[in-house]
Amino acid sequence: MDQLEWEGIPRQEIPWYPTVDAEKCDGCKTCFEFCPHNTYDWDEQNTRPVAARPYNCIVECSTCAGLCPSQAIGFPPLTMLKELKDRWYGKSGT
């Protein structure tokens, strides 16, 4: 794993990682070949990537989603990270 924490929060506590929409994925391997953090494995049987090591994904990175020609990769909204940080440090949303 490359990133042990983000903004002082342990990486394992942050649900930031890619999800692959099997209906949209065309099996091009762009994400699998691009990701320098070894987040994905390739599922030969289903010919699509699998986020086998989700916590290897760098928090706030979503480059693979932007590169995906079929828009099959999704990430949580960035607002989730702000809400998580506020909860972690005990800040209210008001």
UniProtKB/TrEMBL annotation:
Keywords: 4Fe-4S, Iron, Iron-sulfur, Metal-binding. Gene3D superfamilies: 3.30.70.20. GO terms for molecular function: 4 iron, 4 sulfur cluster binding; metal ion binding. Residues 16-45, 48-78 form the 4Fe-4S ferredoxin-type domain. It comes from the Bacteria. InterPro entries: 4Fe4S_Fe-S-bd, 4Fe4S_Fe_S_CS, Fe-S_Ferredoxin. The keyword Iron-sulfur applies. PROSITE patterns: 4FE4S_FER_1, 4FE4S_FER_2. PANTHER family: ADENYLYLSULFATE REDUCTASE, BETA SUBUNIT, FERREDOXIN 3. This is Ferredoxin family protein. The lineage of its organism: Bacteria, Pseudomonadati, Candidatus Hydrogenedentota, Candidatus Abyssobacteria.
